[in-house]
Amino acid sequence: MSIIHKFIQDGEYYVIDINSGSLHVVDEMVYDLLDNNSLRKKEELIESFKNKYTVEDIDEAYNEIQSLIKGDLLYTKDLYEAIAKSGGESEPYIKALCLNIIHDCNLRCKYCFADEGEYHGARKAMSVEVGMKAIDFVLKNSGPRKNIEIDLFGGEPLMAFDMIKEIVEYAKVQEKIYKKVIRFTMTTNATLLNDEIMKYLDENMGNIVLSIDGRKSINDKVRVKVDGSGSYDRILPNIKKMVDMRDKSKAYYVRGTFTRENTDFYEDVKHMADLGFKEISIEPVVLPDEHELSIREEDLPVIFEQYDKLYADMLQRHKDGTSFKFYHFNIDLQGGPCVYKRISGCGAGHEYIAVTPDGDIYPCHQFVGNKDFLMGDIYNGIHNTEMVKEFKEAHIYNKPKCTDCWAKFYCSGGCQANNFNFNGDMHIPYEIGCKMQKKRIECAIALKTKTMNK
User: Fold this and answer.
1) Can you tell me the distance from the alpha carbon of 332 to that of 350, in angstroms, rounded to the nearest whole number?
2) What is the pairing mode between strands 381-382 and 376-377?
3) pLDDT (tens digit, 9 = 90+) per residue, 154-204?
4) For 47, what's the count of Cα atoms within 13 Å in the CB-facing half-sphere?
5) Which end of the chain is more exposed for a tag (fewer CB within 10 A), N or C?
6) Taking Cα atoms as reference points, which of 59, 76, 99, 62 lies closest to residue 22?
């Protein structure tokens, strides 16, 4: 079992104490002396490295390492397993809701998990009545939680803009009655944005996710309209106008997907940064191996190179005063999420649910349409309590591959849907996703170290 993790990024030597989260930037000698699972005896280290370092230097470094161990900063014990086994809160309160406003879309993105917006079924929009009932459901089942997140999702939710306005207005009334705070977000492909809609979204959405896949040549190969033509020229002006409307206190991010079509995705991140966007995400597609756009094992060396290029670019932009945030490089070395969040992840199936246009409840939007994961509905409540329990207990200590992994407290065991879709079991991580995540974490840690308080 690894107790520390060592890595080299841009010529610097990093050591992470896995259980405490303590980060150490060390020299090459200390890096060499440390093994992942324990510190060897001084005599063994002297014998192993006597041809590379002097005995005096090894002795001095060894004493420094011992002081870190005594200070609970290195080779610390895991104190979180008991918390995980306790299950956190005794009752599963819902804190976030994905409202699938519409199972339809005006684009035909070639990698879409929702089967061109249909979610493997008929195209359908949510009624105002179902939307209101979903608001009631989450308010009544949020327990002591004051803050509730609701993501307006699709398909393309702006195809039902008038209905969205009614649901949001209803929520504003109900949150006061229940003494709660509802924060709305929206994910949109930006094709339907106009002045009226942009003004409304700016005023009512706590966060807006705007989809574009980077360079025009890449975007227009995969993010296409119904007639097969590209969407870049339509969406870019809309996205720029929407972003310009948001002041610094209001959240947004420009989100893309990279596929086998653009394993050189650093160029797409750079393209978006050069356009002036300050909040950017480019995420790897998750598709079956046989899909022509899927990410495969042989793509990983190129993908890792892209993350290294992105790290170097972001470091330089920080020095130049033109920095931007990259979603997957956001990391808090001093605090981070609460312990239970680090152990259990997004909370799908017990803290977070998705509601379909018919009012059916699923663990998250990626399970929608798979009847094996139907949890209940907003009219009769969640009847599949065993599934709730299964999702709640699908934390890192019940995932054998995660238990011994250095990155477990950063990724929380990965996406439950990806794990299930690739392995038929939520407890077995999606391996390619794990490898990409580990690389991103290393780059993020190094970047944060280089830019913190500078």
Assistant:
1) 25
2) antiparallel
3) 899 999 999 999 999 999 999 999 999 999 999 999 999 999 999 999 999
4) 5
5) C
6) 76
